[in-house]
Request: fold
Amino acid sequence: MNEILQRLCRIGIVPVLSVEDAEKALGLANALSAGGLPAAEVTFRTQAGEESIRQIAENCPQVLVGAGTILNVEQCRRALAAGARFIVSPGYNEALVAYCLEQGVPVIPGCATASDLGRAVSAGLDLVKFFPAEQAGGLPLLKALAPVFPRLGFMPTGGISIKNLSDYLGYDRVRLCGGSWMAKSELIQGERWEDITTLCRQAVGTMLNFSLQHVGLPCGSADAAAGTAQAICRLFGLDYRQGGSSDFAGPFVECCKVDMPGTNGHIAIGTPDVDRAEFHLGLEGVEFLEHTRKVDNNGRTKAIYLKQTFAGFSIHLMRK
Reply:
């Protein structure tokens, strides 16, 4: 997948912005970034859209800005000249897709039917916009269509809100979502930047959905791990499960047979998408132990340890 699209997928949510006054573009972009969403799909529906893209591209390099509601090649040229890094269209326009591919520009066309998805596959695309998501049939329709096109990732947009965000992102074929609820027109017009930042932080928290999964105890050997796990199981009526490098007492306690990071043990924090969580924690300055990364057959991270320890405990992220 294109590097820009990979970054968008790690951000996880792309605010869709309808800007009526380009002078508000910088305040808006900074509010999004402060809330943990350094991305913007600025629509071409308004006269200020093109200039807003230019202002963000020139003055807010931390924000990955793209152009939305692009209907034809001419609009695409203008958006790219203004500094757009990616192009989003509401429908599948073959001329527009072909032009973007020729120029090496990431394009995310709108698709809601099997025919459109087939065109996207034929064009060699990796990611499409499922639009209008809720109105077209929502997650049930997406789950019916997606298995037929196994190479495609999806960006549902249209009717996405804080209420259904986790449902969409919980489906592994959804790589990110687009939405406007965190930066509605009235918030932009009123320059309510703090409110926008707060809504962005809420969206990020909902998306990452951190939860405690288990605590790991350093037992030092296979016999000690088995004995410790079995003793905890007897005491609390938990199920004992034997593993390769660890034994488990229920789902809560991992008794480690071999050395792992953390003097006193480790704490496992679950999240739906480890790569996405790694990106967002990285924005806060968190560093990771690369040699501890475990990936699946698709190259997506299953688990990784943080460099920082807490009271002698290490922390690792793991996919729920």
